[in-house]
């Protein structure tokens, strides 16, 4: 599980990509506790979708802003989204 905090955009996506890559390599999937992410841009959205396509990605504890963004793009129906980290772990 990773739990990044703050705003993520083009400049910070390499760090997030590295964290996700490490989790995937060590565990075969990743739970992203997104409760502390307050902003994402299209590069992060692309990273999330690419990660979803290549491994078992579970998003948990979405910040309301992310819930809104995912809903606008319709990807909330594609991604594995859970209300809590515990719920994501039990799946």
TrEMBL record:
Residues 1-91 form the STAS domain. One of its GO terms (molecular function) is anti-sigma factor antagonist activity. Pfam families: STAS. It comes from the Bacteria. Gene3D superfamilies: STAS domain. This is STAS domain-containing protein. It comes from Streptomyces arboris.
